[in-house]
């Protein structure tokens, strides 16, 4: 049984509005917890008598920060703009959230940006602390994001770079030439998300077995599992289990 | 050397296959032609007593010289990061504690700090909770360094130190058991504070430990520092300078042993470390000896920190006041041996229906975390432990990534080992202190 909002408004069938209070208790989400962005328990196709199945989640795009950003963020931006002529082309947007600076970088420019961030005297991000992937399924067309966390030991600053690629063309240049430490971390992102880092010296799986199929950390990767009986009740596998979202 | 039911020599791409299960090196290489089989590939691990867990090393040898070293990880991958996405935010702490099993408190604290930053309640964490976190982390750092000393000693042939290291670690595990109820996998540090208060008994045990430990440290130094085999095996072995460390992302004691005093507790303080009095030990040489010296000195510094934290412990709540986040944290041991808050149970079961509903919602559904992402890094015993947490606004983490120092540091092994002797691979690998549970997650 689908919830009433699934049905097109084909004459006469009233489409219920989002229940009042839905957005005040449940904050607008980015990205939605479930691909459908609907319901509270994640159960589709079963009888819903609670009414919570009618909740529709609001998506809210990440907002670009406006100047001044505060803290050292303005200095970092200015220094990068000065040292890197293609700044306007490479940086898609600048986000400041929870006291952290994120530069959204066009994927094909990521290695160049890293090079400038590492070498420019006013920036000096010598250490690449972390490289990880995030799969924003259903929230972004280019759903696979690579997140780089750079640390400047000289200035004691951090900056996050985020590059988004699509599943169809999950390619971006490797930053191993700039930060050799990205080697294993890029392999992990490849292993878990299927993001291909062009120019990586040895892009193979690292945590999963070499002959594994699929990329487990993608949000559409099937979890598998079988229903388990416990004290007379049947417990579903995690991804089909009724649960809060 | 035995012929076995593993791959026969016909099944490999090149060269002959030997299966070696111990024995003397001369006997092993006697089967090879010294002219034509100059290079042999040795597969060390993943089941090997000297690889610090299930680490596999593929070594290309010329005689006893390592020409190429490649490490293979992933044997202990348990998908913790993926699992987190199917549990609520509080349940996450029971998963992350199992990553680096020698430093569970650090995993938990990193996670808790990240969740708190996402929630925007970093400033609401009570002073007592923060002090307890510091206390627990520093005790954990000592126990982790003790295991390092013990296992490294064993790998380099010093069996006594292995016994002593594990023996002293028991003190700390005992303290942890008194405080958290468990020797390992505590899930003690939770988003919002800690699971329960420190009992008086534990304070007494910690004071006792602080009295005993300096003597023991002296014993270790008497046992190892002047010992010719130990110095021969560690001095000028597996050298990695600051440039190499930073390029390869190596942090923690290994970076400090190369001379750079980079310690997140000082450089990017968290949990109020800027208000504590302690030093960051460094060493100029960047070799295994330096790492040994730095770690011993860090145990001493951690003891200073534990002492200061004990003095600061003022009575007060150990959980945030926000009832939408806080689980009951005034626990007593129930008949089943589990922590239980009798007062809380009496209230929700006997007095207040609303409290019961609230408790049920909090435990089954959990709290919602506003969407966004944060990166929180703390100084774990092995280096920078970073938590990249992403929330989609739901009751479960959308993505949590651990920047595990074991994982990142292990990349440096070829740089340390290639061109050296095979025995130094062991010393170099041990000096990185990789914990495969953390590395593979």
Automatic annotation (TrEMBL), chain A:
Domain of life: Bacteria
HAMAP family membership: NDH1_NuoC
Subcellular localization, as worded in the UniProt entry: Cell membrane
Positions of the NADH:ubiquinone oxidoreductase 30kDa subunit domain: 103-225
Keywords linked to the UniProt accession: Cell membrane, Membrane, NAD, Oxidoreductase, Quinone, Translocase, Transport
Name of a matching Pfam family: Complex1_30kDa
Record note on quaternary structure: NDH-1 is composed of 14 different subunits. Subunits NuoB, C, D, E, F, and G constitute the peripheral sector of the complex.
Record lineage: Bacteria, Bacillati, Actinomycetota, Actinomycetes, Micromonosporales
Entry's EC annotation: 7.1.1.-
PANTHER family (UniProt xref): NADH DEHYDROGENASE [UBIQUINONE] IRON-SULFUR PROTEIN 3, MITOCHONDRIAL, NADH DEHYDROGENASE UBIQUINONE IRON-SULFUR PROTEIN 3
Segments for region (Disordered): 1-44, 223-245
Name by which UniProt lists this protein: NADH-quinone oxidoreductase subunit C
Function: NDH-1 shuttles electrons from NADH, via FMN and iron-sulfur (Fe-S) centers, to quinones in the respiratory chain. The immediate electron acceptor for the enzyme in this species is believed to be a menaquinone. Couples the redox reaction to proton translocation (for every two electrons transferred, four hydrogen ions are translocated across the cytoplasmic membrane), and thus conserves the redox energy in a proton gradient.
Topology in membrane: Peripheral membrane protein
Family: Belongs to the complex I 30 kDa subunit family.
Reactions accelerated catalytically: a quinone + NADH + 5 H(+)(in) = a quinol + NAD(+) + 4 H(+)(out)
Species whose genome carries this gene: Micromonospora tarensis
InterPro entries noted in UniProt: NADH_DH_suC, NADH_quin_OxRdtase_su_C/D-like, NADH_UbQ_OxRdtase_30kDa_su
MF annotations from Gene Ontology: oxidoreductase activity
Xref: Gene3D superfamilies: NADH:ubiquinone oxidoreductase, 30kDa subunit
TrEMBL record, chain B:
GO molecular function, one term: oxidoreductase activity
Quaternary structure and interacting proteins, as annotated: NDH-1 is composed of 14 different subunits. Subunits NuoB, C, D, E, F, and G constitute the peripheral sector of the complex.
Catalytic activity entry: a quinone + NADH + 5 H(+)(in) = a quinol + NAD(+) + 4 H(+)(out)
Native organism: Micromonospora tarensis
Gene name of this polypeptide: nuoD
HAMAP family: NDH1_NuoD (MF_01358)
Name of protein: NADH-quinone oxidoreductase subunit D
SUPFAM superfamilies listed in its UniProt record: HydB/Nqo4-like
Task of the protein: NDH-1 shuttles electrons from NADH, via FMN and iron-sulfur (Fe-S) centers, to quinones in the respiratory chain. The immediate electron acceptor for the enzyme in this species is believed to be a menaquinone. Couples the redox reaction to proton translocation (for every two electrons transferred, four hydrogen ions are translocated across the cytoplasmic membrane), and thus conserves the redox energy in a proton gradient.
